[in-house]
Specification:
536 residues, alpha/beta, Rossmann fold, 2 domains, six-stranded parallel sheet, six-stranded mixed sheet, 17 helices, disordered C terminus
Length: 536
C-alpha cells in the first residue's frame, strides 16, 4: 500500500511548520492512523541519532515522537549543518558527505533528488499517511529550479499543501497573498488551504482579514492557531534562544534557586537537552552570549557546537573565555558536553583540516586532555553509568554521541583515562552502544567533580540522574534544596503531555474535517472532525 501524503509549507522560515507537522502527526495518531513525518532537506544544528546510529534533524525526531513511531533516516534523508554563514556539512542518509560552500551545494542539489524520492517511497510503503514539511518558503524564486524540498516534493507525491503564515511577526496577509502570487500556476493549484499561526487576541477582530484572504485567493482559511505560551517542544533552530539569551544575571533565580548558564556559542547544537533542567522548579536556565549577561551562575555549561575551534576563538575574542576561567577560580562548577568538553582540554589538534585551517589551538586548559579531530563521525545511541562529576549515578542513563574526533590524555594511546591519575578521572562509563554491551570510558573530570566533560548528549534528560545532579549541585553551592523523587512527574519535562496539549489546541482550531476530505480518507473518526463539521 502507498500512503497518502499531506504537505505543510510556510511563507517563511520559523512560521511554525515543524510544530504544526508535529500536531498533525499526533492528531492522526490519536485518530488511529499510522503516520510518519518527512522533510526532504533540513538545515539545523540541533540533530538526533536514530536507533541504528544515523543522524537526522531534531525536528523530525520530535515529530516522530509525536506520531508515536521510532525516528528513521527516511524521515530526513538530507541534513545541512551550518559551519559558517556560507558553508555547511552535508549529511546524506545519516552520514557526512562533505563540506560545501553554498554555491557548491546549490550546483549539485538536483543530484540528490533520487535520495529524496527513495526515502519518501520507503516511508509511504510502511505507513498510512506521511505528513511532509517544506523548508523556508516555496516562493523563493531564485531557488525554484533546484528545489528538492518544497513544491517539487508536493508534485511528486501528489500532496495537497497547507500554506502557513505567522501573524505574530506581522504582515501575515501580505505574506500569504504574496507567496501565492509568486508560485507557478501548477504549484498554486496544489495549495488547498491557508493556516494562520500564533494568533493572540479576539478572533472577531481578525474576521475581516480572513474574509479578505478567502475572497482574494479563492482558498479557504482552514484554521487560526492560537499562540501557545510555554510550549516545551524540542527546537531545531537557535532563533528560539533569542529571548533566553538576553536575560540578565539579575533576572536569574531571584528566590535563590539554582542559576544555570549555558553559553550560547555561535554554532550551539543540541541545546534542547537542557529543556528538562529548565522545567524543574527552582531552576533557571539561561543562555548568555555576551560578557555582561554571564553573571555568577551556580553552574556553567559549555554545550555542544558544530565548530569547536571557531566557537572557542569567539569565546576568547568576546572576553567570555577569561570570565569563565575567573568563575572557575572562584569555585563555579563547569560541565562541558561534546564540543564544550573539547574546549575544556589543553589543546585541539586538527592535522587534516577537518574543522579549520588551524592545526593546533590551545584549549581552556581546565582538563588535562587533548582532542584530535578526525574525518570519521561517531553517531551512536548509548547508555552510560556516571562514575564521576558532581553526582555519580549507577544508571544506566540513555544518551547519544555525535562528534568528530577523539579526546585523550596526551601521554596515552588508549581511549580513556587511567583510574588513579591524581588530576583527572573518568566522567562516565558507556555500558551499551547501539544496543550492544560494552565498557568504554567516557569523558574526564577533576577529582572533586567541579570540572567535568563528556561526549554523551542527553544525560540530563534522564529524570533520575537529573534529580541527583541538581541535589549535588545545590549542596555544593549552598542553595536550599528539597530532594525530589525521580520520575516524569517530579517537576521535569513531560513531552507526551506537551504533544497532547498541542494536538488539542490545533484540533480545536483547524478544520480537520476539510483536511480529511482533501486527503480522500473515508470513514474518518468522529474525533477527527471539528464541532463546526458536526453541525453541518
Amino acid at each position: 500500500m502507498t500512503a497518502k501524503t499531506l504537505m505543510v509549507q510556510g511563507t517563511a522560515s520559523s512560521v511554525g511548520k515543524s510544530v504544526l507537522v508535529a500536531a498533525l502527526c499526533r492528531i492522526f495518531k490519536e485518530d488511529g492512523l499510522r503516520v510518519a513525518p518527512f522533510k526532504a532537506q533540513n538545515m539545523a544544528l540541533n540533530s538526533y541519532v536514530t536507533p541504528d546510529g544515523l543522524e537526522v534533524g531534531r525536528a523530525q525526531a520530535m515529530q516522530a515522537e509525536a506520531a508515536g513511531v521510532p525516528v528513521s533516516i527516511e524521515m530526513n534523508p538530507i541534513l545541512l549543518k551550518p559551519e559558517t554563514d556560507a558553508r555547511s556539512q552535508l549529511v546524506v542518509w545519516g552520514r557526512p558527505a562533505g563540506s560545501y560552500a553554498a554555491v557548491e551545494y546549490f550546483q549539485r542539489k538536483l543530484e540528490l533528488w533520487p535520495v529524496v524520492v527513495e526515502a519518501l517511497e520507503r516511508l509511504r510503503s510502511r505507513f498510512d499517511l506521511v505528513v511532509m514539511e517544506g523548508a523556508g518558503s516555496p516562493a523563493e524564486v531564485n531557488l525554484r529550479e533546484s528545489d528538492i524540498v518544497n513544491m517539487r516534493v508536493a508534485r511528486h507525491a501528489g500532496a495537497p499543501v497547507l500554506l502557513v503564515g505567522d501573524i505574530d511577526r506581522g504582515g501575515v496577509f501580505a505574506s500569504l497573498v504574496g507567496t501565492l502570487e509568486l508560485l507557478e500556476p501548477q504549484d498554486r493549484g496544489a495549495v488547498r488551504g491557508l493556516v494562520i499561526n500564533k494568533f493572540r487576541g479576539d478572533l472577531a477582530l481578525l474576521q475581516p482579514g480572513l474574509d479578505f484572504l478567502e475572497q482574494r485567493t479563492a482558498l479557504p482559511v482552514l484554521g487560526v492557531i492560537p499562540y501557545l505560551p510555554h510550549l516545551r517542544l524540542a527546537e531545531e533552530d537557535s532563533v528560539a534562544l533569542e529571548a533566553l539569551s538576553s536575560q540578565r544575571p539579575q533576572d536569574a533565580a531571584g528566590d535563590r534557586g539554582l542559576d544555570i548558564a549555558v553559553i550560547r556559542l555561535p554554532h550551539i547544537a543540541n541545546y534542547d537537552e537542557f529543556d528538562g533542567l529548565a522545567a524543574e522548579p527552582g531552576v533557571r536556565v539561561r543562555f548568555p552570549q555576551a560578557l555582561e549577561e554571564l553573571g555568577t551562575p551556580d553552574l556553567l555549561v559549555l554545550p555542544g557546537t558544530k565548530t569547536t575551534v571557531a566557537d572557542l576563538l569567539s569565546l576568547r575574542t568576546s572576553g567570555l573565555a577569561d570570565a569563565i576561567l575567573a568563575l572557575v577560580r572562584g569555585g563555579t562548577p563547569v560541565l562541558g558536553i561534546c564540543g564544550g568538553y573539547q574546549m575544556l582540554g589543553q589543546r585541539l589538534l586538527d592535522p587534516d583540516g577537518v574543522e579549520s585551517p588551524r592545526t593546533d589551538v590551545p584549549g581552556l586548559g581546565l582538563l588535562p586532555v587533548v582532542t584530535t579531530f578526525a574525518c570519521e563521525k561517531r553517531t551512536e545511541r548509548v547508555r552510560a553509568a556516571i562514575v564521576g562529576g558532581l553526582a555519580p549515578y549507577p544508571g544506566p542513563v540513555p544518551g547519544y554521541e555525535i562528534h568528530m574526533g577523539r579526546t585523550l590524555r596526551p601521554d596515552r594511546s588508549g581511549s580513556g583515562q587511567a583510574p588513579g591519575d591524581p588530576d583527572v578521572s573518568g566522567f562516565a562509563r558507556v555500558t551499551e552502544r547501539l544496543g550492544r554491551p560494552c565498557a568504554d570510558p567516557d569523558g574526564a573530570c577533576t577529582p572533586d567533580g567541579g570540572i567535568a566533560g563528556t561526549y554523551v548528549h542527553g544525560l540530563l534528560e534522564d529524570a533520575g540522574y537529573r534529580a541527583a545532579f541538581l541535589e549535588a549541585l545545590a549542596v555544593r553551592r549552598g542553595v536550599p534544596w528539597q530532594r525530589r523523587p525521580a520520575g516524569p512527574d517530579a517537576g521535569g519535562l513531560d513531552r507526551q503531555a506537551e504533544y497532547a496539549r498541542l494536538a488539542a489546541a490545533v484540533r480545536a482550531s483547524l478544520d480537520m474535517g476539510r483536511v480529511y476530505q482533501m486527503l480522500a480518507l473515508k470513514g474518518s473518526p468522529e474525533g477527527a472532525r471539528t464541532p463546526r463539521d458536526m453541525e453541518r
